[in-house]
Amino acid sequence: MSVRLRELIKAVRQCKTAAEEREIIAKECANIRTSFKQEEVQHRHRNIAKLLFIHMLGHNTQFGQMECMKLIVSPSFGDKRMGYLGLMLLLDERQDVLMLVTNSLQTDLNHPNQYVVGLALCSLANISSPSIARDLSSDVIKLLGSPNPYIKKKAALCAIRVVRKVPELMEQFIPKVRPLLAERNHGVLITAIALMIELCDIEPNNINYFRKTVPHLVKILKNLVLSPYVPEHDINGVTDPFLQVKVLRLLRILGKGDAAASDAMNDILAQVATNTENVRNVGNAILYECVQTIMSIESEGGLRVLAINILGRFLLQRDNNIRYVALNTLQRVVERDQQAVQRHRSTVLDCLKDPDIAIRKRALDLTYALVNHSNVKVMVKELIQFLRTADLEFREDITAKICLLTDKYAPSPKWHVDTIMKVMAMAGHYVQNDVVAKTVHLISRTPDLQNYAVHKLYTCLTVDIFKQPLVQTAVWTIGEFGDLLVSSGKLDLTPRDLIQLLDTIVKHPATTLPTKQYVLSALVKFSDRFNNEINSDLVAEINPFRQSLALELQQRANEYFSIIDALEADKRAKLLEHIPPLEVQEEDQRDYQEGEEGSEGAGAGPASSGESAPSLLGGIGSESSGSSSGSSAGTNLLDLLGGGPSSAPSSAAPSLNDLLGGGSAPVAAPAGGLGGLLGLNTPSPAPAPAAGGSLLELLGGSSPAPSLGSPAGGLGGLGGLVSPSPLGGGGAIPPMVAFSKNGVQIKFDFAKQPGQNNVTLINATITNATPVVLNNFVFQAAVPPYMKIQLNPPSGNIVPPNNGGVVTQQMRILNANYGEKPPAMKLKLDFVVNGQSYSDEATLTTFPPGV
Fold first, then answer.
1. For the packed helices 413-427 and 433-444, what is the interaxial angle rounded to 10 degrees?
2. Is-contact 528 577, C-beta < 8 A?
3. Which of 52, 85, 271, 295 has its CA 20 to 30 A from that of 114?
4. CA-CA distances (angstroms) from residue 756 to 344, 351, 492, 726, 753?
5. Residue closest to 97 by CA, chosen among 62, 45, 124
6. Cα distance between residue 552 and residue 313, in whole Å
7. pTM of the prediction?
8. Nearest-angstrom CA–CA distance, 318 and 310
9. What's the pLDDT score for residue 567?
10. Does residue 758 sit in helix, strand or coil?
11. Which residue ranges form the domains of the chain, and what is each CATH number?
12. How far apart are CA 833 and CA 772, in angstroms?
């Protein structure tokens, strides 16, 4: 015997295990099936109610769907209500059985009882499929003109579902919407405005049509704001906040981009902003929508300031939800009126100390956006102070942002270097690799800063040699300008003191392989900076690394040993003389006094974003930043293109030994390829394997090595073997967008290698239009087997947000079948956003003619 719904609920609640519940449900479902078979009409209403309860518990109730149809056609209102309720819960638009209810819905839509019509409209608005919506749309349009407000309200809600499912019917509903705004019933007004918003979202051209209703909407909102107390619509002293929010949202859509419509609503928005109190959530909701509307339309400057002041008051509240919303909104509007947001800077900075991690995160993002040339010192100081106590997951992002803001807005080179040193000393391994390159770049091209920087960095080394980015910067600077450190007499140092310091660094357990490479480069420079009497000490320091298991250290040690031990003094002096200021692209130059924005040029610092130490060139390391991408990623690219070893993505610059013909075998003799070039009596290196496709062959073959007396001087002249010539500004090959997705864009500019049509120079410019910074950005490229590619080090591995800067990377491609096979390329991007790694790929098969 079937039990009542109340008894079933009680029995289920008393179950102690899931098995007991399943047993009771199975028994009751069996009884309900029996009742359905026996056509017990008097119990059908109760059985459907129990099935709805069983459905909410997650059990199968499909066997009751047809019984819902029988209840719908019943003349009893109670049966109809239960039938429609079961229809909305037990069925959805994807089930074919729903087609059987179309005639019943149409009949009930024309029923004389308004509540039966309401049931049909409610069901149609919840489960109608496109075919049912198309069949019954004419009935819904007719009900929009009904004199009954109850039916109008339901019909407007149903119309939203119809136009969503069948957008082509939208034209039939548009003329019926505007008359609904003349209704005094608030329910009809809310649903009519909701329908207008939906029509504008589906088809933006409808916005121009509905702009004619702006004066009427302003009148409705004014009556709500200035109306006396109405118990029917009052909520905490505010008249119908739901309708106010809907009107504000529609005004935001209609006023965007239209000065006339925006001017018509400026006064009422000011009244809403000043007359609404933010003591309760009701008032806060209206004020938030008002702020959103003010900042979206073409509003006056004073009105925008009023809106931002409202958000500033939100930040002073205790409710974290309201503060989070305020910070989120301020971040979106800061670009439009930064001066007004700056007035609340102290409040935003106070949010950095909030115990809620979400508030701190949003406050931090807003703080980045508030930094400019006038407040950079104060804001960076606050960020460094926050860095001291920041959570571990924040530190990498904060460090990268501080370095980025410092590089962008630094008022002077001295402050720039001091700030970067402070960050390096505090953040340690959280500092990005390209920060070292940019700092060295800055010191090398600022002569007035070199004496100060070398003394300051030496002092930092005497305090802490654990922080590797700081140690690498200091070692490079001491190696290049150690003579200034000794000759000044301020610290009473000798060259042997500096050698002892470098020896301590090398032997420290925290020292990494790249740092040891920096130390070797600094030691060989000492042979020129100081008298020959310390050469024996230098040889003693370098000699142990000649048998190092690390190939890079072994190669450097052998080459540097040859320079110190066998090279003539005058040649060594030319080779190791102070490097000239590293070249900077014109668009990357910064004037600190004028506070212009800039970034460092590609390949301008040692190992632009990688971990390898700089070579004697002071600018090009033995490995580029792209080497951090790993071999597996490159293999994947090759697999995608079907290439062999010759098509490997060249994400690392060749070593000195490779550039000078030394091959890739470990250096066992004292002289590497460098010794042979300089005329030392050393064994000749083994020739490079022909199958590998040497870089000289890629660039046109037998270019003679420049002499040491060339204008470039020293090893800087040797860089011409591999460094591509600057790309022509107005070449015949048009640029192309190689990648554009989710705000990240890569643009290719092309130029031809002079006299070689099959060699093309490509300058890739990477921009980021999203509001988040892309960290650890790695760009890789692979080509088919009939092509070869060389990638130079990128200008950095951080792509600033909101198109606030660019990362550039130059590459060369050689098409062995030029004119026969078109060029093709596979791109792979890897980057980190908020600590999470992302990756994307693109295949390029269409290049401009001539590539």
1. 150
2. yes
3. 52
4. 60, 60, 57, 16, 5
5. 62
6. 59
7. 0.61
8. 15
9. 84
10. strand
11. 736-844 (2.60.40.1230)
12. 7
